[in-house]
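Readers of this paper often ask what the protein records in our data store actually look like. Such a record has a labelled line for the sequence and another for the backbone structure tokens. Nothing more is needed to write down the fold, since each code stands for a local backbone conformation. The remainder of this section carries one protein's record, kept here as part of the documentation.
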Amino acid sequence: MAMTQSKQRTHNRHASGLRRFPWVARAEVATLAFFAWLLLRLLKLTVRVRSENAGLLQKCWREGEPVVLAFWHGRAVMLPFFYSGRGVYIMNSTHRDGEIVSRALHRFGIMSTRGSSSRGAVGGLLALARAARRGFDVALIPDGPRGPAGEAKAGAIELARLSGALLFPVSASCKLSFRGTGWDRMMIPLPGAELRVVVGDPIDVSRDRNAGVRGDGNETRRFGRESRERLRAELELALKGCTRRADKLAGRIEEDA
């Protein structure tokens, strides 16, 4: 107990010092972001990527048609390894760790809007939708930021509705990797790994939004709670299927997935 209180006092003094000298905090964030980018960059140079069912997604990238990408939190670090579009926006948190991640990913052409499921979510989704309407891809983590792992929230469905873009479930796996111990068991490829990326069939949210339109242009059914929940469940099922397939291709046993 005494040790815990001592550590807390040390942490408070450190935090107080950073508030007193904001340039120290800025320098610390910039340094950590650089080393995070450097690590990912070095890994990217050694990792081999093989994709399955990515034809339509790559066609959208070639033709500059914006898409919405959805992937699990535990596989999110792999986005810079396989993304090859013109630029993608993600939603990142407003706290210090989020700033570090945002700066590191920006060097890969992955830009950030600010928000999370618990803070600024609506503003973050609207910013992502505006980015899609400007021709950029957007990406969302349906089970982030705190889980439970593998349980999709409806944010990606709402984003696809707001942007009008196709929603692609994506997952990735590799046998040679480090696995975290947190709730999401973050998977990080190790040097020389073969990354297997599986793209699910796209979900066209507009098919529900436009369902039931009469010839006079009046909607007989709005995009409501039932449609959103059904599409959310469809996305969750598709992401789980992509993850199982990616793990199988990578040679991971089910218990280690």
